[in-house]
Amino acid sequence: MANIKSQIKRNKQNEKRRIRNRVYRGRARTYIKNARLEIEEGNADEARKATLMAISALDKATQKGVIHRNNAARRKSRLMKHLAALDKKTAD
Questions:
Q1: Separation of alpha carbons 26 and 45, rounded Å
Q2: Within 10 Å of residue 67's Cβ, how many Cβ atoms?
Q3: By the 8 A CB rule, do 79 and 58 touch?
Q4: Is the pTM of this model over 0.85?
């Protein structure tokens, strides 16, 4: 435990921010998980909706500074790649 007053304050601030950031990070993870499940099941329409929700959640987390923009871009890219493969598979 910190003895210095400024470090005690910094610890309190960090804890508040950690709790606030968990909301956005957890929401993004949940939407990504749902999108992946829909893609694996092969529901093209539901997968598209879930993917758009995941992208929105990732953008929001990036906007809040919870995750880095390159991290969000990488995750969105992977989701879209899986969705495109599903679309191609269902079109054939």
A1: 24
A2: 18
A3: no
A4: yes
Domain boundaries, the chain: 18-91
CATH architecture of the domain 18-91 equals: Up-down Bundle (1.20)
Query: pLDDT tens across 21-72, in order?
Result: 999 999 999 999 999 999 999 999 999 999 999 999 999 999 999 999 999 9
CA distance 62 to 58: 6
Which own/partner pairs from 73-77 qualify as long-range (CB within 8 Å, at least 24 positions apart)? 75/28, 75/32
Going by C-beta distance under 8 Å and a sequence separation of 6 or more, which residues neighbour residue 11?
2
